[in-house]
Amino acid sequence: MAPASEDALTKVSTDAATEFVQSFYPALQSNRGTISTFYNQTISMILFNGNVVADGKAVQEIFVNQMPPAHYEVQSFDCQIINQAYPTPTATGLKAPNETTLKDKSILVLVSGYVRFGESRDLPQRGFSETFVLVPNPSADGPKGKRKREWLIESQTFRLVV
Amino acid sequence: MKGGKGSRGRSGGSDRGGIRKKGAAKRVDRDGDLAMDAGSTQGRVKKARGDSSRSVATGPRAHTRDRTLDAIQKAISSNTNSQANVRQGGRGSNLEQVSVRGWKQSKAASNRDGGVESLITFLEKKLNSSDSKAGSRARITKSRVEGDAFIVSIRSELLDRMLKMNGFSFAGAPLTIQTYDPSANGMDQTMLSEVSRNSGAPSTADTKSKMTAILSKRYFQQQKLLNLSKLGSDPDLLAMGIFDSTSTESKFFPALMKVWEMNFDNSTARREAVESVSLADNQLANITVVTTLAQSFPDLKNLDLSNNNFKDSQSLIGWRWKFRNLEFLDLTGTPFSADPTFKDTMLKWYPKLRYLNNTEVRTAEEVAAQKKTPIPVQAPHFQDESQIGENFVKAFFVGYDNNRTDLLNGVYDNNSTFSLNVNTTAPRAQQTETAAWDPYIKKSRNLLKINHLPARMSRSFVGAEKIREMWSSLPQTRHPDIGAHPEEWLIECFPIPGLPDPSGQSPTGVGGLLIMVHGKFEEINGPKVDLRSFDRTFILGPGGGMGGIRVINDILCLRAHGGHEAWMLEQPVVQATQPGQPPIQPPAAPPATSDGYGMPAPGKPDAQVQQEQLVMQISAKTGMTLPYSEMALSGNGWNLDAALKNFEELKAQGQLPPDAFLPGAV
């Protein structure tokens, strides 16, 4: 593959981050049954306020069973490409160089916003900062024929900061 | 979260950005403008707060102000950080003031800023939409909150249009818009001189010293109590003629608050001096006259408002978002106390309230539970086997503060990426004033606001050279020392795989570190130092830099100062020392002190001030008069403990005459 233009790189990464942020936080809020679908099979680390969570399934479990209703508001976010030639795994090992596409990238996303735990608008707004590493979804299809998520969480660090 | 343009009613920026864009001939980076606008709105509101000294002095009075008053005003301005405003918005500028009421009943009132920012956006939008052909955009030049009124300054030619907006509906509530009448509110800059004129005092300085004397009689340092109860029957105030005219009466309290503030060198000392205020027995029907109390004592813990005429929550509405640390509130003897919604409303207004009308309404545990999150706060996760992350972070922030070029030469290479984004609306620590974001906003790559590809590209900086150029345009910073102030930092770190291999040898990529840093820094803009918070994430990989590493990614988020409370580990709740006991218990009779006793004054030696303060402490502790308290101290080498011990002995032996004690103290 010819080296991608700066335009194309910026477009693919910022589109990925935007699409992710605009679907992940609404899911935490009102579609918690889908949370695990945002996560990669292999995970480097998932941290919530310093608590280690094993994988996407465990995150979903916590949000479904233990978390009160929460309102998330993303106020600012940005992203950068980490690896322009991310080694996306396939069923047959690594992709050959001629099989890679513009989307074989890993992306760093930094989000800043607030969360309100509980339903009342009078509850305090807690500022959070959250860092994600997104990687391409290696599987060919989405769950049960649904459109597959193109980018998955490889690592996640959430912290309340205010 | 909301879509691309930022949420309406919060920054509200999109509308105004749109309006501006119409008039702009050349292509404007819309998103940058938006963000800048939101920033400047904040700046405006911020400046307005606490800046009561800005209204315009008119008429001949302005010319007769003496030097003393100028000095007083200077002191006031420097206290409230509003000097620039006072100068800019001075006399002769062609501005009209208009009061807007009714917004506190709107849905926007539950916004974090009380709806002020949305209100400004709304008003500006309406001002503009009624005359789209106007050459220059209608703006609200200045604004401030006074009780339930929002006072805005606009160019005089906009006045008619503004007044026609009376009755417009803002977020579900009709607005009342009227020309502002400063005499109705007692916030006039010249209030001190007016108080002195009306009360027949020879000069402003005289009024000031009389007020200082009254304050020192009513201030109990030991209890951190300012007792402003029964002001109407205070012989000194009556002698000053304060209550002889309604205009003086309304100006008296704000003036008293200013005088109080002027007696302190800095705001920290001022804030720490008082935890409790009593305004009991003042026949107040609402807080209009005393509303400035909230500006002078924002951190108040105990507030006694008993035996006043507050009828309902509306009569207190101006303090709805004030006193965020209030624990004790006494409204006994007010009609509002009988209202069925009374308790619920007060609990809702004051999240830390524990005692209402001397009854416990929340336990310490319940207060603490509000702060608890469903995700327990744990110590940072720091997984860094060979201390690469630790060494990097320690060196990074020292380098960033002192020598950015060396830092770039050391660990950044041609593929390192840096970008920053500003969260202009982030929650912030209490009482934080946020400096304007001007130095950053044109480089901010907040993807919520920066939607166009060229802007997204130009706000990302790849390669040490480009990053150097970028960093050299950013303000100087000073981060706290990590070793000396570890609590102000939260740093997490763990290894990640799949990073680019600079040697190109490993098709599966190489391993490195992901480092997340949260903290604060001081920003040095000439003589001005601003405090900001930041979140900064780095990805480090193996490379040719110092220590065999390189920075692959450096992504920075800036936001208003938010403190470090959020990541402090949850502590077991400490039981209050005296549960149920009202903390506001002024001594039966305040000791009769002479003017300025215990307070610093020009020409008064520090030693004397300290001695007087000791005397007041002994007096407060023992109930003895000041002369006897002084005797106890001077007879014991001015040692407080020795004097107290001596007092206990003499008292036990019955050797103290009745006239050693203040009336009502025994």
From TrEMBL, chain A:
Membrane-spanning intervals of the chain: none
Domain NTF2: 16-160
UniProt xrefs under InterPro entries: NTF2 (IPR045875), NTF2-like_dom_sf (IPR032710), NTF2_dom (IPR002075), Nuclear_transport_factor_2_euk (IPR018222)
PROSITE patterns from the UniProt entry: NTF2_DOMAIN
One Pfam family hit: NTF2
Single biological process term from Gene Ontology: nucleocytoplasmic transport
Entry-linked PANTHER family: NUCLEAR TRANSPORT FACTOR 2
Protein name: NTF2 domain-containing protein
Species of origin: Aspergillus caelatus
From TrEMBL, chain B:
Gene Ontology molecular function terms on file: RNA binding
Cellular location(s): Nucleus
PROSITE patterns, alphabetized: LRR, NTF2_DOMAIN, TAP_C
Domain TAP-C, residue spans: 609-664
Keyword annotations from UniProtKB, A to Z: Cytoplasm, Leucine-rich repeat, mRNA transport, Nucleus, Repeat, Transport
NTF2 domain segment(s): 388-558
CDD domains in the record: UBA_TAP-C
Gene Ontology biological process terms from the UniProt entry: poly(A)+ mRNA export from nucleus
Gene3D superfamilies: 3.10.450.50, DNA helicase RuvA subunit, C-terminal domain, Ribonuclease Inhibitor
Classification via Pfam families: LRR_NXF1-5, NXF_NTF2, TAP_C
Record's function text: Involved in the export of mRNA from the nucleus to the cytoplasm.
Record protein name field: mRNA export factor MEX67
Natural source organism: Aspergillus caelatus
Lineage: Eukaryota, Fungi, Dikarya, Ascomycota, Pezizomycotina
